[in-house]
């Protein structure tokens, strides 16, 4: 008992000593609790027959309690959306993860400071465009009467249905995702590169290292911990990919080829007959899968000798 009281006094002294730090953190902690943890009670909808008049807590439990999950796994449309989500999430990582690293390397090697800032601004700008604007831009460029097909017809060819080709829609999603996000994500790697000691580059140059050697043996090891953490987090969100993008760029003709779980939940909840328990069950399942991938990626990173996120 005496030891517990001593520990409490020590803890209280540390809190008082760092009171301004805790005060600074308080708004962020309050935000997380209010918007991330309090709404979690809504996950009970996955195990209930939700009735709007009764509310979440007043709605009866499903009979059996896992009924919504049985309904979910019995639908072919769900499995199609599930496999699309997994496949597209994997390719989003394959195409989107290396792009900002390569861009950061290229920008870091530029010697003209003004030119470097101009390019960084140009590459970062697409991040601030909404997917509504980008969807409209893609329609303007690639629709049957779009700019690209106008050029094809002017050259004597026939118009091609870029936006109605089921084999082309996913590569277009990956390409626009890279175009939109690579410049913004490269900022993280540029910041990590800025923390590398210039003395390492100077010593390597004295030893006769060229630019490629310095990138390979100094720059890459310097940003590797950052890259590993971001890769782990990317695998932790492998089932969260492209809701806004798909909603604005995919039309009904190619919907089956590009629909993921998020758009499927949206369609089942707001366009078909609403079943909030069923929708919550799908969302909960997706979160559990993301959590498993996060743990697996973190474990693999540790086995390979890299630092994890926990």
Can you tell me about this structure?
This protein is mostly helical and 310 residues long. The protein has one domain (79-303): MetI-like (MetI-like fold). Helix content is 71%, strand content 0%. It is built from 16 helices and no strands. The chain has helices at residues 2-17, 19-37, 55-58, 67-73, 76-96, 98-108, 113-124, 131-142, 147-154, 169-194, 198-206, 211-236, 243-249, 255-258, 261-270, 276-303. The longest helix is centred in the last third of the chain and has 28 residues, at 276-303. The protein is flat.
Brief descriptors of the model:
310 residues, mainly alpha, MetI-like fold, 16 helices
Poorly predicted ranges: none
Write the H/E string, N to C: HHHHHHHHHHHHHHHH
CATH topology: MetI-like fold
Distance between the termini: 32 Å
Question: Tell me about the biggest sheet?
Answer: none
Number of β-strand runs: 0
Q: Superfamily at the CATH H level? A: MetI-like
Task: Output the structural class.
Answer: mainly alpha
Strand content: under 5%
Number of domains: 1
Q: Report the CATH architecture.
A: Orthogonal Bundle
Q: Describe the oligomeric state of these chains in a short phrase.
A: single chain
Shape: flat
Task: Output mean pLDDT.
Answer: 87
Q: How many H/I helical runs?
A: 16
Quick overview of this protein structure:
By secondary structure, this protein is an all-alpha fold. Helix content is 71%, strand content 0%. The two termini are 32 Å apart.
